Amino acid sequence: FLVSRPVAYPISMASRATRGYWVMDLETKEIVFLKDTWRTNAEDMEVEGDILLSMKGVPNVPTLVCHGDVGDANTYITQTDRYQTAEWNAHRPAIQRLTSQVHYRQVIKEAGYTLESLAGSEELFRAIADVYNGMEFAYELHSRMHRDVSFGNIIFFANQSDRKYGQRQGILIDWELSCVIEKPKARNHWITGTWAFMSINTLSDVPKPHALVHDVESLVYVVFYCAIFYLQWDYNVDTHADILQNFFDHFEQISKEDDSKIVVGGSYKVSNLFNTGRYFKKPKGLPLVIQKWLSRSVQRIYSWYFSAPPDRTPEAQKECARPLFDLTDNIFKDLSNTDREVHPRPNYKGPLLMAVPATPSSTPPSSNLNVAVRRSPRTQPNANASQGS
Questions:
Q1: What is the 3-state secondary structure (H, E, C) of 213-240?
Q2: Parallel, antiparallel, or unpaired: how do β-strands 251-255 and 353-356 relate?
Q3: Which residue in 209, 222, 232, 271 is deepest, having the highest Cβ count within 10 Å?
Q4: With bands split at pLDDT 50, 70 and 90, how would you rate the model's confidence at 356?
Q5: What kind and span of H or E run contains 318?
Q6: What is the pTM of this model?
């Protein structure tokens, strides 16, 4: 492979140090994508390349070219976890569990562009319909849920000459945190996902097993995020800051009875449900078709959380989600690829941190529960960048 400079790279020490590169396959002359990362080395963690190979028949997911650990596994493996029980580290709470990480590389066929490159609302909605289609097929054929649907994990890919800018395919990438239905509590020593786009359930102090509808909820939040950053509306910097600070970035720190702490969130997302989508209504001037779609999404999410008695069967989950993404030509005729408008990220003092006293209901189900999160982007990403992680 002939490798480019990195087009995606970590901006935080608290990460898997993932870098992404556009590369040329010297045999086929095709441009493909190389992901260089440090995968979690745990018994209950599947290798992403193996996951992709197992998802036969699933559309709109990456096509694996090759993958594997880098060098000698004993050489390219982190050592930090070996010291978590050391005497000098004994003051740290037992809840903070560490695992080793292994240097890993993966090449996929789809070298795409991030959602920030969207042409307009039409391309955005076509892409999210593609992504949901892939999510549903993965669920039906392989009982697999993604668990990290987010702005950075969806790309546009021009797979053929007729899939040009404005008509690109939506691809859901980064499946390493996915799990199968039979193991919805897998890896319960941390919460997986990207904080801003996590579902209400995932952000709660006592989360229930992950379900397809939680990934669907995250996909709705991705659409809302794209709308306030990259589509035309009656832009107001205070409104933009309010949405980002409260709806996307807000978290609360809960003290437990043993003086340890856990981080939870989602209270403003709950408020959004009980107040008929009040945060979805804040950006005035969004295209009417998008406003209606966001309103329908609130109704669907509300029905999932608060229907009595709730139907948790796989078929019920699909019936709850499918109407949002079974998009017709009637919807697309009211969307456009000429309504792109980029809005800078507003400055604010940072996410609100609220200390909440412990209550019996705020005790997590497992003493091993920890939080591993990725925050929403702090700066406008590079418009020429490709996949992120």
A1: HHHHHHHHHHHHHHHHHHECCCCCHHHH
A2: parallel
A3: 222
A4: very low
A5: helix 314-325
A6: 0.84
